[in-house]
Amino acid sequence: MAVKKGQELELEITGIAFGGKGIAKVDGFTIFVDKAVPGDRVIARIGKKKKSYAEARIFSIIEASPDRIKAPCLYSGLCGGCKWQFLDYAKQLEYKRMHVEESLDHIGGIKDVKVHPVIPSDRVFEYRNKMEFSCAEKRWLLPEELGREGIEAGFALGLHVPGTFFKVLDIDVCHLQKPQGNDILRDVREYMRKSDKPIYGLRSNEGFWRFLMIRHSTAHDQWMVNIITSENCPAEVQPLAEMLKKKHPNIVSIVNNVTSRKSSVAVGEFEVQLLGEPYLKDKIGAFEFNISANSFFQTNTPGAENLYRTAKDYAGLKGDETVVDLYCGTGTIAIFLSDSVKEVTGFELVGSAIRDAENNCRLNGIENCKFIPGDIKDSLFNVRKKPDVMIIDPPRSGMHRDVVKQILDIAPERIVYVSCNPATMARDLEMMKDHYDILEVQPVDMFPHTYHIESVAKLRLKK
Ligand SMILES: C[S@@+](CC[C@H](N)C(=O)[O-])C[C@H]1O[C@@H](n2cnc3c(N)ncnc32)[C@H](O)[C@@H]1O
């Protein structure tokens, strides 16, 4: 049967693709169905149609999969924050493990590696230590509000509808953050609503209030609030900071990042400290970290500990090893390993991350870690002596080919590859598999209700 754009079809969902879409087959032809899960029988409307596949949206569900659950969130299915709330968590983990295994097989040609069951997130809700909410002049209405009279559509402080820059849902409660985060969100919204300063228009690029970023310290139950505006106006933001501190004494840092740039990134051209410290303190394992508003820090703190413990275990440390930590960010892995090795050398592109790493070493009294700035492609020649262990934790895009070549020349005995993207992990390991045995892979979930998954792969140089 030929599948055509605009057609309505009854489909049986039999699989799930990386990215979270359900898969149906019509005479062998693949259809990716948005928000569908295996076991669903649906009527779906075909949207995009290509030579080898089509995309479809659910029009109605005839029979729901037994794996469907009632999502606790009001915005489930609309919000880009999490797309899998309607899928049972045990099933989410099963599909995540399957994606890691399939990526290794289909992209990397790596077949016989043991991919363990996923280490689940300690918390399935309230797990994020950082949330970023966008301001918009008009809020995106919920389906049940459409066409209703007297609906107030002005102003949103919330999260985006997936794939859109201007559609913002006004979020009252987000279950990914702690309840107090929702109270802070509401307090800031009320203040902005009453303010004389305008909300920043995402199309007009004019206005004052732009973003709100909230960070929570899991270890100390303290908060950082970062208000992002287009101008520096202390008369407007200082009273907001005072009000928040009065209502929430455990907010220990309030800063104002100011940016007139059009890009929708909540990072300021400069930062004004309004109250308390310029950073938040949190812990991973026994180590303390100072996190400033714009520093990278894993967003699920207990999840990060699970990830780093796995990496440490796969490194097989005895205490006298020299370790190279590629793509080290703010040095969290280097610091986590520091008490179990002779020394760690971290490599990182972003200068401010290196400064954070050095500060965090000082904070913990660590003296056996050093950090080398620059693009790894150009700085890896600094590794003159073969390290005992190499940790590699690249960005989503994976490693540059030249970097892989240089690693193969250095040829450390043990490699631990940490990845947030099964596809690029599979591609990179494919380039290394003639030189290294890929012994096992441990997926670690840090992002419940999304299709994202971290993985740790254990590699040993072939004899
Ligand atoms: C996935 S993060 C790893 C962070 C760290 N390992 C952690 O757990 O927090 C990847 C890091 O690679 C850095 N990076 C990206 N491209 C790079 C390059 N070409 N050279 C050096 N570092 C790079 C990014 O700035 C980022 O800090």
Key features of this structure:
OB fold (Dihydrolipoamide Acetyltransferase, E2P), globular, 3 domains, Rossmann fold, 7-stranded mixed sheet, binds S-adenosylmethionine, alpha/beta, 23 strands
Summarize the entry for a quick read.
The chain is an alpha/beta fold and 463 residues long. It has nine helices and 23 strands.
How far is the N terminus from the C terminus? 53 Å
**CATH level-two architecture of the largest domain:** 3-Layer(aba) Sandwich
Spans of 5+ residues with little confidence (pLDDT < 50)? none
Which topology of the largest domain does CATH recognise?
A: Rossmann fold
Structural class: alpha/beta
Q: How would you sum up the major sheet?
A: 8 strands, mixed
Query: Total number of helical segments?
Result: 9
Read across the widest sheet, the strand sequence of neighbours is 7-22-23-21-20-17-18-19
Bound molecules: S-adenosylmethionine
Proportion in helices: 10-25%
User: For this structure, what is the CATH homologous superfamily of the largest domain?
Assistant: Vaccinia Virus protein VP39
**Radius of gyration of CA atoms, rounded to a whole number:** 24 Å
What number is the mean pLDDT?
A: 94
